Amino acid sequence: MSSAAPISAESSHSTTTPHSTVPPARLGTSGVFAELVGQQAVVEQLQTAVDSGAPTHAWLFTGPPGSGRSNAARAFAAALNCESQGCGDCHSCRLVAAGSHPAVSLVSTENVSYRIDDVRQLITTAQDRPQGYRWRVIVVEDADRMTERATNVLLKAIEEPPPRTVWVLCAPSPADVLVTIRSRCRHVSLRIPPTEAVAELLVRRDGLSAERARFAARVSQNHIGVARRLATDSDARTRREETVALPLKVRSASEAIVAAARLVTMAQADAAAESDARLAEEQASLRRSLGLEPSEKVPPKLRAQFKRLEDEASRRAKRAVTDSLDRTLIDLTAVYRDVLSVKLATGAELINEHLRDQLAELAEALSAEQALACLDALNTSRVRITQNVPPALAMEALMMQLIPRRPRG
């Protein structure tokens, strides 16, 4: 089994009032569930569990990338412990947001899979009492990255959980988790939120104009985190626009090689920028939870907590490049979906509506079969970059396949 980086511990925290008396604002527009837009049924399901006082001991949160499954898991963990009705702003909630809540752990791996020792460590943590809080909550991101051996180690802990312990596993789909695990978990299924819901969140939370928010929501394909970044970071928008323009320009092998190198360079720059921004956010949040001013010197006794954040950021670096390349391939996939939409005259709004004229030109140069072949090539590349294929080689192979070719005959 490949070794995994040490798992990281973070947290999130808050609670809510009985479902029958919860005002509309509580169900997804404020407090800990504020960012779960377009997930009304999920919010109600989680709210009911919190209000019951006796939630199921094991949960499985599933949904495609961008659906907010990790955010939902954190919000649920927060709601289980918060004493101020899911305020999102009390001391306990701030501890959770900063990743330093003593009773809530958010664990993830930056590598291909979890080590068995990591899982055993989680089981040991689960045995601890919640130390003055209602529940000890352990949120496991990327539960699909557990090997069968690691999952079997976890199984007994889920079958016979300690009192006051709640497990929350996150995965893209139920099929990504062994049946022995998912049969013992209560399932929560999230969906990609609608464009208008994501845009409304960006306007309300980040103060963006309606036009910019809707553009970001559409081109991010309703991924809240990506949408926010595109809306607020001009460099990210520029890199994204350059990415989707590349296949519109590539017409020869030499241009394909140059384009591939450019894709890798942009992915590396994007990963570095995102990693730096995330670290800055985590440090700022930790400062707030510890009562430190932004410019105040960190006392020696607290430096270990900040060093932990820096170490985790360093471990994330390699995977960040892979994730950035994957996002790049998703953006390119949207280009060829748009091309097919134009080719087949569906009349639907394009993801890259602002590039309709250029997409129409590419649609003229490709047959529907060729566009589908390009989509297949993109899917193959997404698999390759997770299998230790050198990024430059994977991108070169891809761009060569995206060169428009004259239809036979």
From TrEMBL:
<dbReference type="InterPro" id="IPR027417">
    <property type="entry name" value="P-loop_NTPase"/>
</dbReference>
<dbReference type="InterPro" id="IPR004622">
    <property type="entry name" value="DNA_pol_HolB"/>
</dbReference>
<dbReference type="InterPro" id="IPR003593">
    <property type="entry name" value="AAA+_ATPase"/>
</dbReference>
<dbReference type="InterPro" id="IPR008921">
    <property type="entry name" value="DNA_pol3_clamp-load_cplx_C"/>
</dbReference>
<feature type="region of interest" description="Disordered">
    <location>
        <begin position="1"/>
        <end position="27"/>
    </location>
</feature>
<dbReference type="InterPro" id="IPR050238">
    <property type="entry name" value="DNA_Rep/Repair_Clamp_Loader"/>
</dbReference>
<dbReference type="GO" id="GO:0003677">
    <property type="term" value="F:DNA binding"/>
</dbReference>
<dbReference type="GO" id="GO:0003887">
    <property type="term" value="F:DNA-directed DNA polymerase activity"/>
</dbReference>
<dbReference type="GO" id="GO:0008408">
    <property type="term" value="F:3'-5' exonuclease activity"/>
</dbReference>
<feature type="domain" description="AAA+ ATPase">
    <location>
        <begin position="55"/>
        <end position="193"/>
    </location>
</feature>
<keyword id="KW-0548">Nucleotidyltransferase</keyword>
<keyword id="KW-0808">Transferase</keyword>
<dbReference type="GO" id="GO:0006261">
    <property type="term" value="P:DNA-templated DNA replication"/>
</dbReference>
<dbReference type="Pfam" id="PF13177">
    <property type="entry name" value="DNA_pol3_delta2"/>
</dbReference>
<feature type="compositionally biased region" description="Low complexity">
    <location>
        <begin position="11"/>
        <end position="24"/>
    </location>
</feature>
<protein>
    <submittedName>
        <fullName>DNA polymerase III subunit delta</fullName>
        <ecNumber>2.7.7.7</ecNumber>
    </submittedName>
</protein>
